[in-house]
Amino acid sequence: MTSAIEDTINAAATNDEPNPPEFFENWLGLKLEGMDEQKRGMLLSFAWDRYKQNRVRPTIQQLRVDFKRMVAHNVSQEEQRKAFEKANREQGGTKLGITKLGERVPYQLHSPNVAMLETFPNPAKNPYLVEHTSAEFTSLCPKTGQPDFGTILIQFEPHLRCVESKSLKLYLFAYRNTGAFMEQIVNQIRDDLVEAMEPLSLIVRGEFKPRGGILTVVTAKYAKEQDETVTDA
After folding, report:
1. What is the domain partition of the chain in residue ranges?
2. 88: which of 28, 51, 160, 230 lies 20 to 30 Å off by Cα?
3. Confidence band (pLDDT; 50, 70, 90) for 68?
4. Is residue 182 predicted with pLDDT exceeding 60?
5. Catalytic sites, residue numbers
6. What whole-number distance in Å separates Cα of residue 66 and Cα of residue 14?
7. Whole-angstrom Cα distance, residue 53 to residue 7?
């Protein structure tokens, strides 16, 4: 049975109030005296957002554990968020905004486009490679309407930005009801990723299931000013 205070907190969460009730911190049983006011407010904001997003309201014990972890770790997360916002302003506005991660986003099963891809600033200074694999990729033959099945492998060396994986997943899902030849698909994926990230190098490889007894593999490459496509069938 919940208390009146907890009922009030739950009601505020259900109404998606932007700020927690003033007794929220005391209800957590944690005191943040002596902490920088901005940092304290940031931690409470994180705790409130997490509480609102939890469909099954956590017990106070669970929330206390979460809050202790947040005190220990979320300062660095806030610094990352500020860095993202700064890069967002300096390197392309909403092009770097992350809006899909952690949110319910309806699937769009047609019309893939670069606007669906979200990116974040490259968090490392040294060169490195990122690999993404979509093992259940599907699209449609543009002539027969029959489904094509395959695996899409993406490898890139980041420059300023990296693609956010949930937006990439939603982007690849959009090919499901899209009629296009395999060669067109792989090249479009490459072009859209290059436009979204501007990587130092990028390889997109599509390994498609046999049709008519023929196995098709399409590889599209990008490196600086060089652009290359190779098709193996």
Report:
1. 4-90, 114-232
2. 51
3. low
4. yes
5. 141, 148
6. 20
7. 16
The Cα–Cα gap between 71 and 40 comes to 9
62: three-class secondary structure by DSSP: helix
- Alpha carbon of residue 150 to chain centroid: 22
Rounded-to-10 torsion of CA 170, 176, 178, 180: 110
What CATH number was assigned to the domain covering residues 114-232? 3.30.1130.10
The Cα–Cα gap between 63 and 135 comes to 37
Task: Give me the phi and psi of 59, to 5 degrees please.
Answer: -70, 160
30-50, pLDDT tens digit by residue? 555 566 666 667 667 767 776
**Distance of alpha carbon 79 from alpha carbon 39, whole angstroms:** 11
Distances (CA, A) of 124 to 19, 96, 132, 161, 193: 34, 16, 18, 10, 19
